[in-house]
Specification:
Radius of gyration: 19 Å
Structural class: alpha/beta
Number of helices: 13
Order of helices and strands: HHEHEHEHEHEHEHEHEHHEHH
Helix content: 40-55%
Largest sheet: 5 strands, parallel
Length: about 325
C-alpha cells in the first residue's frame, strides 16, 4: 500500500506544473503512474467504493479548472466537472458563447487572465496550434482535451479499460479500423509505450499523420512491439488482434463530407463478421459518440464491448492528470 503509493507519487513528481498535450510527452514511468492513480481513484471514489464520499480525500480543495470548449462534448465536460468535484475542486465550463479564443480577445490575453483565476486550463479545440498557443502564454498547466492532432485523455481511458480487462498489455495487439485521426495518433503512441503492437486499416488518403507515425515506429521498437502494420483492408488489420478500435468517420466540422466519406469507408464497419477474424476473446472500443455505420449494434452492445468502462474511465484519468499537474498525488 504505502510503498506503492510513494513509488506512484515519485513517478508523477515531474508532472507537477507541466502541460498535458499528447501522450508522447509522458515518460513510460509517468504513463504507468497516471494509469495506477486513475485505478486508485476509481477504487476510492467509484460506485463500488466502500468509502463515504463525504469523508473521501479531497486533495484538490481550493483548486479550479477552466474548461474552454470550442467543440461540444458530453464525456469531456461531465467527466471533468464531476471528477474535479469529487477531488474537492471546482470546474467552470466556458462554451463558445462564453469565450471565443482569439476572437474578441487574443489567445495570449485569455491565457494570462485565466491563469490568474484558475489552477488549470483545459481546452477542447479545433486546431492544435490553439493548444500550443495557450500553453505558451498560460502561467498554469494546460490540458489538451482534444485538438485536430491529439486526444491524449481518450488514450488514457482506453489503456485503462484494456488493462482492467486483460491485465498487462505487453505482447497484446490492438487494431484500428477507420479514419487515421487524432484519437488514433495518441492511441498508437500510448499502446507502443505499454508494449502493445498496432495494426491499422485506413482508406487511402485517410492515413495517420506521418510525423506521429514515425514517433510511433521508434517507440514500438524501443518497447519491444512488433512493427506497426498498415493496410487498407479492415479484415487484414484485425488478424491476430486482441482489441479492435474505431471512431467516427465524420468529425465535427466535416459534416459536408458525410456522403463522400460514407462511400470511402465502405467495408470498414466493425461487425460480428469482422470481430470473428480477430483473436478469440477480442474486445471492441469506441470513444463515442458512435454512428451505426461505424459499428453494428450487435457488437456495440455485446459482451465484447468495453465502451462503458472506457467512457467511465475518462473521469478517473482526467482526475489523475489534474492531480499530477497540481502536485497533489497523495
Amino acid at each position: 500500500g504505502r510503498r506503492f503509493q510513494s513509488s506512484m507519487a515519485a513517478s508523477l513528481a515531474a508532472m507537477n506544473g507541466r502541460n498535458f498535450k499528447s501522450i508522447d510527452e509522458l515518460s513510460n514511468e509517468e504513463l504507468r503512474g497516471l494509469l495506477d492513480l486513475s485505478k486508485k481513484y476509481k477504487a476510492t471514489y467509484g460506485k463500488d467504493a466502500s468509502i463515504d464520499p463525504v469523508s473521501a480525500p479531497k486533495p484538490l480543495t481550493g483548486q479550479s479548472v477552466s474548461m474552454i470548449f470550442q467543440k461540444r462534448s458530453t464525456r469531456t465536460r461531465v467527466s471533468t466537472e464531476t471528477g474535479m468535484t469529487l477531488l474537492g475542486g471546482q470546474a467552470l465550463f466556458l462554451g463558445p458563447s462564453d469565450i471565443q479564443l482569439g476572437v474578441n480577445e487574443s489567445m495570449r490575453d485569455t491565457a494570462l487572465v485565466l491563469s490568474r483565476f484558475n489552477s488549470l486550463i483545459l481546452a477542447r479545440v479545433y486546431s492544435h496550434s490553439d493548444i500550443n498557443e495557450l500553453s505558451e502564454h498560460a502561467t498554469v498547466p494546460v490540458i489538451n482535451a482534444l485538438s485536430d492532432m491529439h486526444h491524449p485523455l481518450q488514450t488514457l481511458a482506453d489503456l485503462m479499460a484494456m488493462e482492467e480487462h486483460f491485465g498487462d498489455l505487453r505482447g497484446k495487439t490492438a487494431s484500428w479500423v477507420g479514419d487515421g485521426n487524432n484519437v488514433l495518433h495518441d492511441l498508437m503512441l500510448g499502446t507502443a509505450k505499454l508494449g502493445m503492437s498496432m495494426r491499422i486499416a485506413t482508406p487511402t488518403r485517410y492515413e495517420p499523420n506521418e510525423e506521429i507515425m514515425a514517433k510511433t515506429v521508434s517507440l514500438a521498437s524501443e518497447n519491444g512491439c512488433s512493427p506497426v502494420f498498415s493496410t487498407t483492408d479492415a479484415s487484414e488489420a484485425v488478424q491476430g488482434s486482441d482489441a479492435i478500435f474505431t471512431d467516427t468517420w465524420v468529425s465535427m466540422g466535416q459534416e459536408e463530407e458525410y456522403e463522400k466519406r460514407l462511400k470511402e469507408f465502405d467495408g470498414y464497419q466493425v461487425n460480428a463478421d469482422l470481430m470473428s477474424k480477430a483473436n478469440p476473446g477480442a474486445v471492441f472500443l469506441h470513444c463515442l459518440p458512435r454512428h451505426p455505420e461505424e459499428v453494428s449494434d450487435e457488437v456495440f452492445y455485446s459482451d465484447q464491448s468495453l465502451i462503458l468502462p472506457e467512457a467511465e474511465n475518462r473521469m478517473w484519468t482526467v482526475m489523475a492528470v489534474m492531480a499530477a499537474q497540481l502536485g497533489k498525488v497523495e
